[in-house]
Amino acid sequence: MAALSRSNPDGSITISFTFVPSACMIESEERIQAALHEAGTLATGISLEHFDTDGTPIQLGGTTLTSKGEFPQGYQTPYGEVKVSRHVYQSSQGGATYCPLEAGARIVRTATPLFARQAAFKYGAMNSTLAVADFAEHGRKIARSYLQDLAGDVATIAADKEALWRYTPELSPGEKVETISLGVDGTCALFCEEGYRHVMVGTIALYNERHERVHTTYVARAPSEEGKGAFFEKMDQEFAVIRQRFPQARVCGVADGAHDHWLWLKERTKWQVVDFWHVSEYLAAVAPAMAKGKVAQQCWLDEACHRLKHEQGAASRLLEEINDVMPRSRGALAEAVRRAVSYFTNHLARMDYWFHAAIGLPIGSGITEAACKCVVKERLCGSGMKWQVPGVRDVLLLRTMIKTEGRWSQFWSKVSRFGFASLTRPTRP
Questions:
Q1: pTM of the full predicted structure?
Q2: For a designed S-S bond to 215, which of 39, 111, 178, 206 qualifies (C-beta 3.0 to 4.6 A apart)?
Q3: CATH topology for 179-266+383-405?
Q4: Please, what is the average pLDDT of the chain?
Q5: What is the pLDDT of residue 424?
């Protein structure tokens, strides 16, 4: 039986439906789900009608618009498609049309905001095939192409508003931020025309007085003609907002050995720390030159890492020890020793681990390393995946909003409050 609606004197709406139980429980649940979707579709249609006008002329940006009449339009909702007749406006000189219902209800493409939010979240969190299957599992069929286009529209809104909308970290009441840690790194994804290309990833981590990480902002950017400029511009934008909110916090930079990363970090941080685990990998590579036998080599490595982390000046002394074995090293081992000497020499000032640990600064870039995996690799590097740059931009923008705690809900709150301009996106390749 079809769902029914009834208007109440207090302005509320009552939606009722009837279903027939089955001898099979899962079949009963499926019938309930179908009935609920039908009721939800009916209720959404009624809600949409509240955003329409009565057809009288309206003013928009100093221009008088008149209704061309009521025209039916299908809108996608979390429960199914609903068709609504709504007024479409235009000026007497012609030109673009305007639909008050779609602007007021924050329609994205032809989707209600909740459905657009769900679709974009799923597309950012999983590949499109799985997202379509996930919708179907919950009784909602959606075309894969529509899902991709709808998620792309949401990403476009987010990109258009990046310069205008500010997002602040959501912390527990009374939480104090003592340290801001900046991290930058890069990883690769496979593109259709260019093959493997570099994707930049950044993190801005906040630590409290107990040196516990309480929030992380994620940034990721697809390759562009400007190189890494767009990525660092976005990092600066995010960092400026956080720095303004926590001006008393000390700022450190933690990364691996990439030269251009350190140029950017040095200008924005008081302390710079090269990732401890990267350094330990160089020590592991030269261990065969420092001791004979696997047991002795492991003992040397354990002691060297302990010294490096807990003893003042340990990095300089280890550099001298490694440099001393260079003349008697041969082949691949000689190359490992040479690379370790070069790495220690270039980053010696960033290996003051005993001091950094003593004052509670992070000494590892694990947060950023993990971001390369959870933000980029898990979504962009599935079996057989190849990407176009616009598609990567959309996915990374959605994914960083989802991964940054509180950002997704803040974004949709701003969409609901301020709305957005009409979207014109090119056809997908």
A1: 0.92
A2: 206
A3: Nucleotidyltransferase; domain 5 (3.30.420)
A4: 94
A5: 58
